[in-house]
Amino acid sequence: MNTFKKEVQQGLEANPKTLPSKYFYDKKGDALFVEIMNMAEYYLTRSELDIFKNKTEELIQALDLNKGSYFELIELGAGDGTKTKELLKKLVHENYNFDYFPIDISANALALLEQDLKTEIADLSVKTQQGDYFEVLDTLKANKNPKIILFLGSNIGNLTDELATKFIYKLGTNLNPGDKLLLGVDLIKAKEIVGPAYNDSKGITAAFNINLLERINKQLEANFNLNQFEHQPEYNEDEGIAKSFITSTTKQTVEIKAIGKSFQFKAGEKIHTEISRKYNDKLIQKIIADTDFSLARKIMDSKAYFADYILNRT
Ligand code: AVJ
Question: Where in the sequence is the signal peptide annotated (predicted)?
Answer without folding.
Answer: none
